[in-house]
Amino acid sequence: MSENLAALRAELNYDKTSKCVQCGYCLPACPTYLTMGKETHSPRGRINLVKMAGEGKIKDLSVLEEPLDLCLGCRACETVCPTGVEYGAILESARAAVTRRKKFSVPVKALRNTLFKKVFPSRRAMKLIGNAMWLYEKTGVQKLARKSGLMEKLPAHLGEFEKIMPAPVSPGERSSLPAVTRAKGEKKYTVAFFVGCVMDAMFRRINHLSVQLLAEVGCDVIVVEKQTCCGALHAHTGELDESRKLAKQNIVAFEQAEVDFIVNNAGGCGAMMVEYDHLLAGEPEWAERARQFAGKTKDISQVLALCGGIKGQERPAERVTYQRSCHMTNVQKVTEDPLGLIKGLPNVELVEMKEANMCCGSAGIYNIVQYDASMEILDYKMKHVKDTQTTTIVTTNPGCLLQMKLGIERENLNDRMRAVHLVEYLAERCGINL
């Protein structure tokens, strides 16, 4: 074997492809295979392409780009694979290999560098974005833009997403998340809260409610100052080196706080952080520190359940359904705690939708960059949502939340259905308001 081919195999995680026996168990679990019906858009098809590249049968890695880009990265295939194929590791390595060889245009390269190196990792930059969203609404520019029809002319269907953006919080509210919030009553745990980048900019209210709920159940909550983006968006778009840098920064930041758990409220962020040990496994000076960090990482539903759940108030009866976050389900393996919290609320009936584990098509920014494919998957999901005849969709991930809001909009169900984050719903049912 030539030295170049050996290096490429290591880069592609080629050794991990040998576990795939091409049995096809992954096909019914894969949203893109179900909606597109092409072997190259199935897990085993993508693995076979990576394998062929590692064997020198595919010389130009750009051949892999479309099949890899059209993958949601939901990792549902891993849960049904009888041989334990590490599809997520293969996918990320292959995407990174393709990205390293791709020649981006100057504008695209500049945009990627700005977003991945200057914007997402910077809490200051994300704060400015959040404040700009507030100004956009409060100054009346939003109403004017919508009335003029400008939103309909935006590229990449951004006008559709603008309609479903959450209500922004004021700069004053944005700055009011305290460094330490004490437990109400007897303290059970001390936790560090991960604020995230998108959550911090667009869903600040959910972050505030998360801290209040944690305090309500008996947690001292610390907000670590020098934390940064989890690195998930970077890893999913082939920027693995940047993802590793962010992981190291978070490890250093959270090591300064002596806590029982590191708590997040976004399925995608949690899935990234719980795999920091895999991300940094090849760096001996970081491997153990990453393992300890990953071991402390918990979704907020896990900690709330561990503390005894939320004592909801007597409120009007309601039927709800739960949209499972793929990364919470398939990577973090958190499945029962959110359901238990919802079922424990008075006068709430939980109705599980058919194919509940199927991805909604959000997948980070997939619904923007692969709009048509994403909408096919969303429409498939919304058929099952409507069959539940519920009034509320509860989610645990910001991408899922926006996607389900978009689904409600596309189905003209705004007058009878809503989508909320689990944290919002729990706070609402137990009377916690900002």
Automatic annotation (TrEMBL):
Highest taxon of source: Bacteria
GO MF: 4 iron, 4 sulfur cluster binding; glycolate dehydrogenase activity; metal ion binding
Catalytic reaction list: glycolate + A = glyoxylate + AH2; (R)-lactate + A = pyruvate + AH2
Name listed for the protein in its UniProt record: Glycolate oxidase iron-sulfur subunit
Cofactor, free-text remark: Binds 2 [4Fe-4S] clusters.
InterPro entries: 4Fe4S_Fe-S-bd, 4Fe4S_Fe_S_CS, Cys_rich_dom, Glc_ox_4Fe-4S, Helical_ferredxn
Domain 4Fe-4S ferredoxin-type residue range list: 10-39, 61-85
Lineage: Bacteria, Bacillati, Bacillota, Bacilli, Bacillales
Biological source species: Brevibacillus borstelensis AK1
